[in-house]
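Late entry, flavin mononucleotide complex.
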Amino acid sequence: MGKASLQAWMGSDLTVLSTVAVALLMMLFVIVKFGLRSSRSSRSSRSRPKPDYRHRPAPRRARKKSSHLFQADRFFEEPEERRLDDDQDDDDDEDFDDFLPDPESTLELIRHRRTISAKDCNGRTVAEDEIRMLLEAANWAPTHGQTEPWRFVVIQGPGSITDYLVYLDRWYRDRADQLPESTMQKFQKKLGSCLDTWVDKVSHLLVIVMKRQAKPDKLMPEWEEMCAVAMAVQNLHLMATSLGLAVFWSSHTWCQDARESSDFKAYLGFAPEDKVMGCLTIGRYDRSKTFRGSRTPMFNKVALRAD
Ligand SMILES: Cc1cc2nc3c(=O)[nH]c(=O)nc-3n(C[C@H](O)[C@H](O)[C@H](O)COP(=O)(O)O)c2cc1C
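Prediction complete; structure with ligand written out below:
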């Protein structure tokens, strides 16, 4: 294309200048608009805390399916088998020695662990991280045959705690004509006192269950499995002492008929042969309060046969 025809096509010099100016303005607009947007987004992603996916809630569909049940993935994202064994390198052993509390501190922790009842709780929430610590401590209980029979149904928050009590109430009402009048009265009285005195004071309930055959190929004596669960509870209780939380083990005698029933076990997600061993109430309490414990001397409970 010749110069003359180019000029003819573009028109006068003035037209060329205005075309260049418009093009420059458009480029400037694009740079300002997209440049600002990207700097704004990088600034906001810097100031926003990173989401912690380990604690993400269970998917909505899974939660809906069995809303009364403990959804483990709300607490533990991926089930992993954790081992502390001889394969660990020596460095770990050294760390462990540094980390061990001295015998006096250990005894103090054990002696200062107290049962603190639900009515002494102050209504403040226990964090999920703390509940995870309690459960992790429980999980390191001794277990004959590695059956690990301890199970906990975590009931979190006032709505779910009320639902649990409402379920028990319905259980008894539905069977009122089969149960002795005295049983009904005893249950109603205790339920009333739960609702009046502590339902809005505790943060969590942990229903304790012994899974009768936790390993399909190993059936241990029932008493051993119950002992293993009790040891898990003791671990949990000691961790609660360390965290400054109130724990109370109720054996659920007041709702014993329900506790032993297959319906109740199914409601919790368990089989008829499994055993519900009561329930822990967990909450916060006013740390200025003191709770006394007492024990008769140990030497009355020990027989010694020695050389
Ligand atoms: C298996 C078991 C079941 C318990 N059940 C109840 C219960 O139903 N009601 C109750 O008041 N305390 C119950 N307790 C808690 C005891 O009352 C408490 O351990 C005892 O008073 C000693 O207090 P301490 O734990 O502060 O040392 C239970 C304890 C255990 C080990």
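The longest helix spans residues 13-47. Will revisit in the morning.
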